[in-house]
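On clarity, I found the account of how folds are encoded harder to follow than it need be. What matters is that the chain and its backbone geometry are given together, residue for residue. The format is easy to grasp once an entry is in front of the reader. For illustration, here is how one protein appears when written out as sequence plus structure tokens.
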Amino acid sequence: MNLLNTEQAAAFLRGCSDVHILIHRSPDGDCIGSGYALYAVLRAMGIRARVCCDDPIPPMYRFLTEDAAFEDFEPQTVIAVDVADLQLLGGLREQYEGRIDLCIDHHISNTGYAKSNYWNPEASAACEVLYALFKAMQLTLTEQIAMCLYTGMATDTGCFKFSNAGAETFAAVADLKRSFDLPYASLNRLLFDVKSKGRMALDARLMQSVRMSADDRVALLYLPYAWMEELKVSSDETDGVSNLPLQIAGVEIGILVKEQSEGGYRVSMRAGDHADVSAICRQFGGGGHVKAGGCSIAEGQSDAVCNMLMAAAEATLQS
């Protein structure tokens, strides 16, 4: 992996032009926040830029994207943010593979696919990595950029509940709070508390059907696509469902297996105090963080897939 230091990354951004910013499929608060924060900074520097994603931006994050106005242009520079692996680009992979000049990321499982990398696996979020870079560059941030950065750090730490929220995370948020009078309470309610009636019904159904290991340390939720259709819950509304299993006392590994409309499954895992779920997900071609990981499984009967994942999680806790 060709790692850049902060000075080199700053020089790269100052010298780039006509930038396509890539974020991962199934976009979440961190990749959207980091992508649109970088877009706004580049535009303020007079550099043409646009954010590219294989999936639509979920409606709940439109407050981060509504001011963006993209032009069509052939990129001279391609930057990926919060993308640990090329496969996370989805349908964009074929177009951009081999052309990504810089990856800005915080995932310990980053595969080093870009020509250069600005990488801090100790950071809570890609937005934290970007905040440190912007601060080192002595850039003047706007309220919109601050909103993007706060959203990324808040969502990737579960509103600062997860163990990845370190001292630098809190210091960055404190700096933002001192500088900008953002509606933090309203933002947190929107990001973490507000759910549709369908999503509330879905959560209840999932928890009633939870699968537990014999020692009650692994909990798995299986989400059939038919349930989402029946309850009229869109895919972007299911962000956060993967955190439900860890609400059960004694659970160390929580697993969400989400059936896809086109077939196959997307898997999200969360860990308590005594497991590395990124290592489990790497067994199935995925990765992520020690306490939050994911992977995709292309085929198989749902029961067999769930049993396989449960077995892998149980083996991790026994090792």
The longest strand covers residues 253-259. The mean pLDDT is 95. The longest helix spans residues 302-318.
